[in-house]
Each structure stands twice: as C-alpha cells, then as structure tokens.
Amino acid sequence: MNQFRYVSPKTIKEALEILKEERANACIAAGCSNLLPNIRDKKLSPKLLVDITNIGELKGISQKNGKICLGPLTTIAELVNSKLLLKEYPILHQAAEQFADPVVRNNATIGGNLVTASPAADIAVPLLTLDALIKIDSAIQKREVGLKDFFIGPGRTVLREDEMITEIEFESSNINKNGCYIKLGLRKAMAIAVASIVINLEVKENKIVQVRIAMGSVAPTPIRLTATEGFLQDQEVDDELIEKAINKVREEVNPISDIRASDEYRRYVSGVLFKRAFKKISI
Amino acid sequence: MNYKMKKVNIEFMVNNKKRRLSIKVNELLINILRNNLNLTGTKYGCGIGECGACTVLLEGKPILSCLTLAVEVDGKNITTIEGIGEDKLHPIQESFLKQGAVQCGFCTPGMIIAVKSLLKENSTPTEEDIRNYLRGNLCRCTGYNQIIKAVKSCASEQKTN
C-alpha cells in the first residue's frame, strides 16, 4: 500500500486546522470500509490520513427542538440499534438493516456513505426524502447544504478540500412514519443496489397530501423524483393514477448501463419498484 | 515536505496479553496479527471487506481486520480466534466440529468470531436471524447448512446450561 502519514485529532477544531493546512493532501478517515480498498487499489493517494474517530463531538444521535441530529460518525450499526430512529424514521432503520452485514456496519459511518457519494448510496436515499440538512465546517466558515444539493456527480460532492461534515439534521414529521424502502440487488445480501427506492407518503381521505420519492442507482447521484412528486400532489389515489405515475418515474430517472444492469432494465424496474412501494403504503 | 513514513509505537491487548509493536502507519491490523504476532488463525480472504474471513473482536465487537489500520487499535482490546476457548474448545467450536461445519476451515475462524457476537446479541436466534447475521461471512465448502445447525445447536445448549 502507498505510504501516508497519520494523525488522530481529538476535536473538530484540531481536525479543521489540519485540513486548512494540508488541503488536498489530506483525506478524512473514519470507518475506512471504502477508503482502505480505494487506497490499496490506488484510486486514492492521500499523503495524510486524518483519523476522526476520536472526535466525540461528531458522534451521537439526538433530538432537539423537533429536529433529529445525527453525528457523521454515527455507524450504520448505531442506526440499526437506535430506538429514537426506529420511532422517528423507521425507513432509515430498514435501510440500515439491509446495509452490507452486521460486521461492516460496526465501522461504516453515515458521513462516510455520504462523502463516498456513490449513486447507490444506501443511507443517502432515505435521507433525501427527509430533506436532510448537511452541516459543513471549515476552519474559516460554517455552512449548511440541503442533501439534495450535496451530490454533484458519481463520487463527487460540494465539499471543499478544507471542509468536513459535522452534523446531519432532519425535521421530525409524521410523513416520515409512513414509508417504504425497497433495495433491488443481484443477490439478497452484500449487494450494491441495482435500483433502490424510498417513498414517504401522507394520504388524507384518499387524496395525496404529501409524497416524497427518492431513488438510488438510477442517476449519476441519489435523486429525489420531484417531477413525479409534483404530478402526484393532491391527486386521488387509484390504479389509474399509479399507472400514470409509473410512466413519470420512468421518464424522470436517468440510469446508465454498467456491470450490474442495463439502463433499459433500470428504467423499467424503477417503475416496478415505485408501484410495489407505493401500493404497500397507500392502502 | 518530507513524507517518509515514520514508525509508530502501539500498545494493545490481544487475547488478554499486552503487546507492544513498532509499526508503519499504513499497516493493516490483519497483517500485524498474522505476521508480527504470529496469530495466523485470522485469515486473509479477499482483503476488501467482502468475505469476513478476517473477522476479529475489537472491544468486544466484530470488525474486519483487513479494513482496519493497526494504529487504530492502540490502547484497545482485541480477541482473535486463538483467544476463543483457551484450555479447551469453546462451545461454539465444539458445536461446529460436531455438526460437520468445518471443511477446509478457512472461513471458520471469522465465522466463529461472528457467531460469538451473534449469540451475545441474541441468545435464541432463528434460522433467519443466523443467516442474516452471517451474511458477510462467506463459505465455499459447506453450503452453510451445517454452520446454521451448529449455531442453533450451540444456542440451545447454552440456553439449557
């Protein structure tokens, strides 16, 4: 493996000073479940690894003022075990349970899943339907970016060289409690999604009050299907609506062909996943 | 800037023994366990975190040692397969042998560590629980059925004890 230096700051302030100084030479390391294979494959060649796992301020799941706050070092295992999340957003809990396997989940972090920015990112897809807010700090400024604006391409985010995620926040809301997550993979476990979907839905007297749809692996980044959402808004739920919505979904996704599936298959199956998920929660 | 890699000193517990090593920062935990400490029970399977053969316990939780830098375990507590069952076989190991769950044995150390962790979290796992928990531990020989039987049998024996 390539050589690198290693440093283990104890506070966010310390870590940000290091990033300010080292900029593109530095790479943040937490669970390392993607980082180490990438370094060994020479896809990444950081000169300095900044191990943030000792920074307590980046850990924890909490609730304040009607908002749920997740530290970026929250492991996927912690998402699975969190009673608060099970109550507030069971879909995130479901997605976390289907993530890799129990052993990897002990190390893999939500910060890591977001920063790796795979179009298939399993934790990003449910977080997108929550309109999650990403808090980003550098040594000179703090800013907030909506998750829908966070990804700019496969493996690319808006994070600058001297920045790191310090918190992920979303509003507690009833719509979060009626949802469905489906991940389609080439095998039942340890699979990178061929396509995945999360729908959160609020229906009153058979009319759609609010709907949020996010999908993974069907576009350069995880996406919200805002056009389909707009189409469904205020509509009466019936089979005809669902069939029309399926077409909207298929128009809205923008998949590619890769070793796991063709673009045509992904486009087609997006509609199928939509129908399955929607029917499950709208009845 | 001079990026020549320095060696760092780490001190940690392995199977209840304190060990001190001087290592480069890019060393993986699996390699120092096998090469520096001669604890070759933990196996190098895929090296990318997909097969589970390298599973060890860190602070009592299972992790993949091929995805862990050795520097990260400074000051911490590790258990490898050599630390499971010391004077005599651990009940999980007994069960694996009785049920024919060991063929070539390559997946076995990682599998047993994962099973130990499963039974700690859930002492009465169903078949689905077992298959779900062990989904990151791949076996090319047994077809998994004997492994599942071994876990069930061990769990029910632990229950009656």
Sheet/helix structural class of chain B: alpha+beta
Strand ordering within the main sheet of chain A: 4-5-10-6-7
Helix and strand sequence of chain A: EHEHEEEHHHHHHEEEEEEEEEHHH
The number of helices of chain A is: 11
Shape of chain B: globular
Give the largest interface: A-B, 28 and 35 residues
Radius of gyration of chain A: 19 Å
| Low-pLDDT segments, ≥5 res of chain B | none
Major beta sheet summary of chain B: 5 strands, mixed
Main sheet summary of chain A: 5 strands, antiparallel
Task: Write up what this structure looks like.
The complex is a heterodimer of chains A (283) and B (161). Chain A is built from 11 helices and 14 strands. By secondary structure, chain A is α+β, with helices and mostly antiparallel strands. In chain A, the strands form 4 sheets. In chain A, strands 4-5-10-6-7 form a 5-stranded antiparallel beta sheet. In chain A, a hairpin with a 2-residue loop joins strand 8 and strand 9. Chain A starts with a strand and ends with a helix. Chain B has 161 residues and is an alpha+beta fold. In chain B, 33% of the residues lie in helices and 17% in strands. Chain B has 5 helices and 5 strands; from the N terminus they run E-E-H-E-E-E-H-H-H-H. Chain B has a 5-stranded mixed beta sheet, with helices on both faces. In chain B, a hairpin with a 2-residue loop joins strand 1 and strand 2. The interface between A and B is medium-sized, with 28 and 35 residues.
